[in-house]
Write a structure and sequence with these properties.
Elements: E1 2-3, E2 6-7, H1 8-27, H2 42-53, H3 55-70, H4 83-167, H5 172-187, E3 191-198, E4 201-208, E5 219-221, H6 225-232, E6 237-238, H7 242-248, E7 254-259, E8 266-274, H8 282-317, H9 321-325
Antiparallel strand pairs: 1-2, 3-4, 3-8, 4-5, 6-7, 7-8
């Protein structure tokens, strides 16, 4: 606790020690404030306070000691004593006390400043140590997360390979049956759907994860913005983009065309309605593109094979039996 920057403990110690010394002088000594005692006992107060508290408190202690020396009574001028020598003797100790308070107090203040600087450096070092420890912990967590992610990606690649083999079928119906596994392996969505082109509209043929409370549209006619974006402009839509979000109308996070690679015709749409927020990233968007192309390629080949098989079957049944016999 301080008063005008002066610590109260220093002031109290100075007053108590000076009072104790004056009491000793009054009851035991000559009662002249130890004027003729050298070194003067008041040096104890000045040196102790200056060394313990610094310049400001030391100067106050020196002033109090000077007041305690001259205020009660000032020794008179002795016979034959020079006037200036008399006052020089009286003022010598107070001047020396003030000088000692400045020197010793400044040494104490300098030590306090160095101590404060060391404390600040120590505090900064401890803060840096905590920061580095936290950074090391975050790095370790990131490393473990990366290891788990790499392991998960390796498993995903294996699952994707197995799912891709199930899609590579000869019949369009078989391809549709294998699409769920391929989408789950490549994107791990919570809800998704596959739409096929039927005349002038897109109709849902697969709706994985949908519930009775969902209000996802099952049919998009040719006038709908989503139909135009997918079928006409062949765009892949991402709800993270404001212009795409307006077209998707909160019906999906991702939507893209299923395009037959052999004919270049858009035959349907893959739509992701829900997925974990951590899974919805740049990698998922790229995987979505690959899955759309994979499904389009497999479905297009299956439809082409089905068409060729049907034409071959019609050719065999429509031929002349006599010509076959000949």
């Amino acid at each position: 606790m301080t008063i005008a920057g002066l610590r109260i403990t220093a002031l109290a110690e100075s007053i108590i020690l000076l009072g104790l010394l004056l009491a000793i002088d009054r009851f035991v000594g000559a009662g002249d404030q130890f004027f003729h005692v050298q070194p003067h006992p008041f040096w104890i107060v000045v040196l102790l306070v200056s060394a313990q508290y610094g310049v400001y408190e030391g100067l106050v202690a020196a002033l109090l000691a000077s007041a305690a020396l001259v205020l009660p009574s000032v020794p008179g001028l002795q016979f034959g004593e020079d006037y200036f020598d008399h006052w020089f003797k009286i003022g010598l100790n107070p001047a020396m006390w003030l000088g000692a308070a400045l020197v010793i107090g400044e040494l104490r203040s300098a030590a306090d400043r160095r101590s404060a600087q060391l404390d600040l450096r120590l505090s900064n070092a401890e803060r840096r140590e905590r920061y580095l420890a936290d950074a090391a912990e975050r790095l370790a967590l990131a490393n473990r997360a990366l290891e788990n992610r790499v392991a998960g990606q390796l498993q995903t690649v294996a699952k994707l390979y197995e799912a891709a083999k199930s899609v590579e079928r000869l019949g369009p119906g078989d391809v549709l049956l294998g699409i769920c596994g391929l989408v789950q392996a490549g994107l791990n969505p919570q809800k998704f759907s596959v739409y096929l082109l039927n005349g002038n509209s897109l109709e849902a043929v697969i709706n994985e994860g949908w519930t009775d409370t969902d209000d996802f549209r099952r049919v998009y006619d040719s006038a709908s913005p989503l139909f135009q974006a997918i079928l006409v402009h062949e765009r892949r839509l991402n709800a993270a983009l404001p212009q795409d979000a307006l077209i998707l109308e909160e019906q999906a996070l991702l939507a893209g065309p299923i395009k037959a690679a052999e004919t270049g015709q858009v035959v349907g749409m893959l739509k992701i309605e829900a997925m974990d927020s951590l899974e919805f990233n740049k990698t998922a968007i790229e995987n979505f593109r690959v899955v759309c192309e994979w499904i389009g390629s497999a479905y297009g080949r299956a439809r082409m094979f089905e068409q060729v098989s049907n034409e071959a079957a019609r050719g065999v049944h429509g031929s002349n039996p006599l010509s076959l016999a000949s």
